[in-house]
Design brief:
The protein is an alpha/beta fold and about 550 residues long. Helix content is about 20%, strand content about 25%. It has helices at about 65-75, 80-85, 100, 120-130, 170-180, 195-200, 240-255, 280-290, 345-350, 385-395, 415-430, and strands at about 55-60, 90-95, 135-140, 185-190, 210-215, 230-235, 260, 295, 305, 320-325, 330, 355-360, 360-365, 400-405, 440-445, 460, 470-485, 495-505, 510-515, 525-545, 550-555. Strands 8-7-4-3-2-14-13-9 form an 8-stranded parallel β-sheet. Helix 10 links the parallel strand 13 and strand 14 (about 400-405).
């Protein structure tokens, strides 16, 4: 079977074995958008010791503490990471056979016919998420059980094997269309672990990592002879090739995709059977077919915060030490749940295990219910609880990833929809109009007014490291109980300590400290225990690695 005249992206040799199944139940693919430039090599995305874009810098065993801090200060996010950070609120949707079996981790041998979401309403999902203030949603296209939510060419363990919609149902298509129609970006979760492929002898079968052709065409494949689809040759195991083919389908037939979410789970299989994932090849495929997509959380763009509680650290750094692991992936140089991932002491403590310092911002995942999949006897978190999570994630230099699981009908439960709406309203009331927007600003350094112009791409620049004072005059005494700070992270994450003060009659020197913070990063929200009334407010930088660049000094009076 020929591949037509599609260009090969690399030239590494012949095809190895891969799990293939006929495409009889496969829906015709949508037109493919123009593709990115051909792949350079079959290396991992950005595995060079120091990346040209500044998002990774090599570390030497002889680096001193000052040298480590200086390197961390030089790290910069990619435009992809900046766009991801500004999403702030993202959603998970755990949905699949587990929804109907009541399990959290499926077995891989489920009867596909158990999947019967007879009331599927992805428009309802999209409306609820939009009204909840969410900017991107990630669907579990495949969880650890291996069941796939669209008709795929590469496994029978999918919606095509269910009698739901006479085997023609496609949850991913419906999800993607609904999200985009309601202004929400599309993300996909494709689990590296796969219990079904283990049962079929593909996952963890000990196969060699050899060049594989992607897409691997199957009998009757409707892609044969098409000139507009690129072909790849990438190193992979049998299962790695299976994943590459699945990723290829999703990214060429359901795009554009803005986040691809991997965890690092292994199947629940005997310990002597381990699948070493082909991260480098997976990353390369994604980078070429979906260059705008952030790869999380076992990926180069976004890291797991280290818990499933939805909470970032009190001082969360996006500049962290990492170590190289198998096939182009990096991992934490310190334990994933260490209380400090990027402070000065952490950089020194991590040095023996560190290969690079990397811009690797945190994503805080948590479910609106106790479980990840829908269970009838569980109830959602309240608006107050969700707002607390917002302050502990978005308010601490991270992005919130909130799971909202569809029920067995294929809808969000009414209680969850109500909780999302109440959450959005609570956040609006916590942070109404910014009282500092357009205030008279003065300070040392340059551009004080740029901290109150509402533009995240402009900033007040402090005059020197660990120095700088920015003063705002609101024109009249004004009550404030919420403060929001942000660095212009295009210039890195620099602030290590700062205080916010209000001018108060009778106070020593005329100023009273009302809030103190360590890190700032992309977003830091400080909650005052009681409103403070003052006309003039100031921010003083106490410690920073390079001169601070403050893009936002926001003052709010909550209406809660």
């Amino acid at each position: 079977m020929t591949l037509g005249r599609r260009p090969f992206v690399t030239g590494l040799g012949a095809l190895g074995a891969v799990s293939l199944l006929p495409a009889a139940a496969h829906a015709a693919p949508a037109p493919v958008p123009p593709q990115a430039a051909p792949l350079r090599t079959a290396k991992a995305a950005g595995t060079a010791a120091t990346r040209a874009d500044g998002s990774r810098i090599a570390v030497e065993p002889t680096d001193t503490p000052d040298q480590l801090v200086a390197k961390a200060a030089q790290l910069r996010p990619t435009e992809r990471q900046i766009a991801w950070q500004r999403l702030e609120r993202t959603a998970f949707l755990h949905f699949g056979v587990n929804t109907f079996t009541g399990l959290e981790w499926g077995t891989g041998d489920e009867d596909p016919d158990v999947f019967q979401p007879v009331g599927l309403d992805t428009d309802q999902w999209a409306r609820a998420l939009r009204d909840g203030g969410f900017s991107l949603a990630i669907l579990t296209v495949k969880h650890h059980d291996g069941f796939v939510l669209h008709p795929t060419r590469y496994t029978r363990h999918s919606v095509a094997a269910s009698t739901w919609e006479a085997g023609r149902g496609d949850v991913l298509r419906s999800f993607a269309d609904s999200m985009r129609a309601h202004g929400i970006k599309v993300g996909v979760y494709i689990s590296p672990a796969d219990e079904n492929q283990y049962l079929h002898g593909v996952y963890a079968n000990g196969s060699a990592r050899t060049p594989r052709t992607v897409p691997t065409l199957v009998e009757g494949d409707d892609r044969a002879g098409r000139d507009d689809l690129p072909a790849f040759q990438l190193p992979a195991t049998d299962y790695g090739a299976h994943m590459l083919n699945h990723l290829y389908e999703v990214l060429t037939e359901y795009g554009p995709v803005d986040e691809v979410w991997f965890d690092g789970a292994q199947g629940r299989i005997p310990p002597e059977h381990v699948e070493v994932y082909d991260w480098d090849s997976w990353y390369e495929l994604i980078r070429t077919l979906a260059p705008q997509a952030a790869i999380a959380v076992s990926g180069p763009d976004v890291r797991w915060v280290g818990n499933e509680d939805g909470s970032a650290r009190e001082n969360e750094w996006s500049t962290v030490p990492v170590k190289a692991v198998a096939n182009g992936r990096t991992d934490f140089a310190l334990s994933y749940d260490t209380p400090d991932q990027g402070g000065r002491d952490a950089l020194v403590r991590a040095l023996p295990a560190t290969d690079y310092l990397q811009w690797w911002p945190a994503e805080c995942d948590v479910s609106i219910r106790p479980g990840w999949f829908f269970h009838e006897n569980e109830r959602p978190k309240t608006a107050q609880q969700l707002t607390d999570l917002y302050f502990r994630s978005v308010g601490r230099n991270a992005v919130l990833l909130l799971n909202v699981p569809p029920d067995r009908q294929g809808r969000f439960a009414a209680a969850d929809v109500a909780a999302l709406a109440a959450f959005a309203e609570r956040v609006r009331r916590e942070l109404p109009a910014d009282l500092a927007r357009g205030a008279r600003a003065r300070g040392d350094g340059t551009g004080p007014g740029l901290a109150v112009d509402g533009d995240p791409d402009t900033s007040w620049a402090a005059p020197a490291p660990s120095a700088g004072t920015l003063t705002l005059d609101l024109g009249a005494a004004t009550a404030v109980d919420r403060i929001r700070l942000a660095e212009e992270i295009r210039h890195g994450q620099q602030v290590e300590g700062a205080v916010v003060e209000a001018e108060q009659a009778g106070a020593p020197g005329g100023w009273t400290e009302v809030a103190r913070t360590g890190t700032v990063g992309a977003s830091r929200i400080l909650l005052l225990p009681a409103p403070v009334t003052a006309r003039r407010w100031r921010l003083r930088i106490l410690a920073s690695r390079e001169p601070a660049r403050i893009a936002e000094f926001g003052l709010y009076r909550s209406a809660v």
